[in-house]
Amino acid sequence: VTGMTLGGDTMTMAREDVSLVDDFRTESWYITASSTGNYPMVATLAGTNSNIAMAAMSFNGAAQSGVLDQVNGIAPGAGDPRITLTGIAEGAIIVDCVVLNDAADITAAANQTARMNLVLTGVTRSALSSSAFATTTNQITMEWSDGDVSDNNYLVSVASFMADGAPITEVFTTPGFNTW
Asked: Does the global pTM surpass 0.90?
């Protein structure tokens, strides 16, 4: 992905992780002060791309400047996807992005809300995303489980976004779509 826009406005990359072992890539993008309403989200791709999955989340109460709090990534991991983000601000929203080489039914941990869970057959991959709210200043672990850790290779990115005083609330989440 060489760029993302929402309604023609440029988005900013929060985090990118790449695994050449499994040809996996995860990216998180954000935009501040976006207009309300329905607008197309467009990804500009370079080269040949045969597998892509996208989802979008919209939140009220997110900071409009100094928005990005913390980021982390694992490239690649093995077993069930799990990542810890430290130093997060109280009230922040934490969003993860996961791809793994297993088409099993994957479940988000109790502290997070699954936002996208595309189980893709034919290519034996799953694309996942979830969010959680930081209730205290410290750390959070985002994890997924399918009960069979022996065959999972995964890539995960996570970013936290600052609140603008009041608690952040979810406005909208797309169900996700793919072109596998």
From this structure: no
